[in-house]
Design brief:
18 helices, alpha/beta, about 400 residues, elongated, single chain, six-stranded parallel β-sheet
Length: about 400
């Protein structure tokens, strides 16, 4: 039985921050019904241009159902509110004030269903001097401190690679929704739960904030050499990601590293025999270790050192994660689904491992794919009513994007 079997969510989110939230819940078994504008849908469908749903959209909307409903029309809003009576949660990440302008703000939804859980993601929250500012992942990360910690100490701030501002906010909202749902099981009452992308991003740098007493000013940027000999070492191949990251934080780990590379002499060499000496002679020690890593592939370095008690990882790129890493493959961490238009494609499986909950993976829905199914199931509509709504533009037909390459 899926862990969240029975939890029903009306999903108005778009792009990544909100869709990450609802996908996490769908991956755990919730019934997520994505409500989209007829003929247009989530703007994330169109990031590649042309007429096909983007890989970006497919990545964040698996295991959901799609309903098209024009919320700019009074009848579309009426139908939506009828659905609100039958669902547990509504999620959105529109610009501040959009839901109120549609006549679908929290007060309206709560009056319709006092038990509803209303989940919202905003760039800077719903209050405060920045509340009206528009926001994207990189903006949130800059505002949350992540840029200030990334890059070389003598260089400018740098954008981190992971989209923590978006997906991190989505995961935070998913946790809040589940907490509100558990509370509702006890009290019968719903509530509004909110995530600020700035605050969610800042939550990911708590470790750096804990180091602030070491600095006279702001916590500074660090390179991959956080402590000697912890560093990024070149490996065979010469490619941009042919590196291994070796992390040594104790004397025991340093001794294990020296033994593993058959250089026990480095433990008694005066230049490297103490942590202080290693810091003072970091470049020289790097050269000694790099001489061992360079003729070996990053996987050879990782597996050899890892088996000998030295924390180490190859620098895995997107190709490695989806195709080359035998550990992820053996654990079933890469899933292949069949999309009705784009065919088979691979993605990283949900990071959940639950012995008592199993959820099959499904591809992202076509725009409006489940409109008839959901409206018949939830509101008891018949085919005549569905046809009338489609003719009036309240709903729309299933839009089947062009096949790949036919843009």
């Amino acid at each position: 039985m899926p862990a969240l079997d029975g939890l029903k969510i009306l999903d108005l989110t778009q792009y990544e921050a909100g869709t990450s939230c609802t996908q996490m819940l769908a991956w755990l078994g919730a019934d997520v019904v994505k409500v989209e504008q007829p003929g247009v849908g989530d703007p994330g469908r169109h990031t590649e241009g042309g007429n096909r749903d983007s890989l970006y959209f497919l990545t964040f909307n698996g295991n959901k159902r799609s309903v098209t409903l024009n919320l700019r029309e009074s009848e579309g809003r009426r139908i939506f509110l009828e659905m609100v009576k039958r669902f547990d949660a509504v999620t959105e990440n529109f610009s501040l004030g959009t839901m109120d302008k549609l006549g679908l703000g929290y007060d309206v939804l709560r009056a319709t269903n006092p038990a509803i859980i209303y989940g919202t993601i905003k760039g800077f929250g719903t209050t405060g001097p920045y509340a009206d500012f528009k926001c994207f992942d990189m903006v949130a990360q800059a505002a949350g401190g992540a840029f200030s910690l990334t890059g070389h100490p003598d260089g400018p701030p740098m954008r981190p690679g992971p989209t923590m501002g978006d997906t991190g906010s989505g995961m935070t909202l998913a946790l809040e929704i589940l907490a509100a749902y558990i509370q509702r099981l006890r009290t019968g009452e719903g509530q509004m739960v909110e995530v600020s992308m700035q605050e969610a991003s800042a939550n990911f740098i708590r470790c750096a904030l804990s180091h602030r007493e070491r600095y006279d000013g702001p916590v500074g940027r660090q390179t991959s050499r956080t402590m000697v000999p912890t560093d990024l070492y070149p490996c065979a191949g010469g490619g941009p990601n042919d590196y291994a990251y070796i992390m040594v934080v104790t004397t025991r780990m340093y001794d294990a590293l020296c033994t593993a590379i058959d250089r026990p002499d480095l433990t008694v060499d005066e230049r490297f025999s103490t942590p202080q000496a290693r810091r003072q002679n970091g470049d020289a020690l790097f050269a000694e270790i790099a001489a061992w890593t360079r003729p070996r592939t990053k996987y050879e370095v990782m597996e050899y050192l890892g088996a000998r008690g030295v924390p180490c990882s190859a620098v895995l790129d997107s190709h490695d994660l989806l195709e080359n890493d035998r550990h992820l493959q053996e654990r079933g961490s890469v899933t292949r689904v069949e999309h009705p238009i784009r065919g088979a494609w691979d993605f990283l499986s949900p990071p959940f491992r639950m012995t008592g909950s199993q959820v099959s993976m499904a591809p992202a829905p076509l725009l409006g794919q489940h409109t008839a199914e959901v409206l018949m199931e939830e509101l008891g509509m018949d085919s005549a009513e569905l046809s009338r709504l489609a003719e009036r533009g309240i709903t729309g037909p299933v839009r089947e994007p062009a096949v790949a390459g036919d843009d």
